[in-house]
Amino acid sequence: MRIAIVGTGYVGLVSGACFAELGIDVTCVDVNEQKINSLLQGVIPIYEPNLDALVARNVQAGRLHFTTDLVSVLDDVEIVFSAVGTPPDEDGSADLRYVLEVAKTIGQHINHYVVVVTKSTVPVGTAKKVKATIQAELDKRGVQVPFDVASNPEFLKEGDAIDDFMKPDRVVVGVESEQAKELMTKLYKPMMLNNFRVIFMDIPSAEMTKYAANSMLATRISFMNDIANLCELVGADVNMVRKGIGTDSRIGNKFLYPGCGYGGSCFPKDVKALIKTAQQNGYDMQVLQAVESVNEQQKNILFRKFSQHFQGNIQGMKVAVWGLSFKPGTDDMREAPSLVLIRSLLQAGCRVSAYDPVAMNEAKRILGDSITYAKDIYDAVLDAQAIFHVTEWKEFRIPNWEVIKRSMQPNPVLVDGRNVFSPEELHDITYLCIGKGE
After folding, report:
1. Bridge partners of residue 392, in order along the sequence
2. Dihedrals φ, ψ of 115, to 5°?
3. I need a surface site. Which of 69, 74, 134, 413 has the fewest CB within 10 A?
4. Which residues have a catalytic role annotated?
């Protein structure tokens, strides 16, 4: 079986490498010549654990190919996945120009039946636009070539994407014909031999499922952050509250950890896009509007706690930031809480020394020389007055607090944005966390 995947970003590259691992002949297509040349040389443009080895193995086996020319592969494939970017417009809606450009190219050049599958996160109704675009190009050519469109949203977590792909909770596929359903079943059958977890549905429902899933997770995060902030005011401990409600089988314990807000490429963008879709259809998503508002406020909580502790007298202070990526396991800093924190610190006249295991290059691209880049967490805290724990990398969990305190200024402070540490282990470093009353 041969397929093409257009777009070699996070979703396209992970999906392509994983499909190839299953024995499928995959060609990944991207208009970015530099990216394709790098991939041909074995250079992976994103950080994802074990992805480099997966790509190299399947390139060597002859199952994974890279090209800038979609037209050259259209005659040989049965399925074309569109995994191009859908960046948010200024109004929050998803920008579909790249999705529709792919559809236009397909319509201009297909000569046999294919299934065109949207893998990118796209608003409800996108498949209709893709179908209309392809058909319009076929009409211009004066030819009748059968094709189907389908929706197959991804549910990959950065840092765990390969396992998520190979061992999915479910695979959601929206189709509108039996022929498309049979072809998508054939595609996913190798990974579903023991438990066929493909859920077929209509295309609008599949498109909505992706947004609904991410919005639900974002809602749980903002809800717990709201609860944490109230816990501080009433003298409760959010960690105890989390355990108390997480054992309820109707609620469960996933995504109940309070913190300094969510970031990344999915939750912020998808919440905004779903709010915009509702507005375009004359409806207000009041819960999601609150979710977004709470999250934006929560990104300021670490700076606020720090400033309040020192009664606003923070100009000229040196501080350390542990963690820059929006979550562990990735170098992605899109919408990262660390950026909000660092910019607030710089604006207040603080000097920032930061460390992250994998996101240092990305931070340098975004922040330039406005901060100092440390070689490890111990280097970051030298002569610092405060530490901000922003991203919960495992290597941060058991530091030598005695060494850290000796390296810092007198009366140091730790502002724990992920509630990982406890005051008892800190060797008299003042501990500020989220959601725990005094």
Report:
1. none
2. -105, 125
3. 69
4. 266
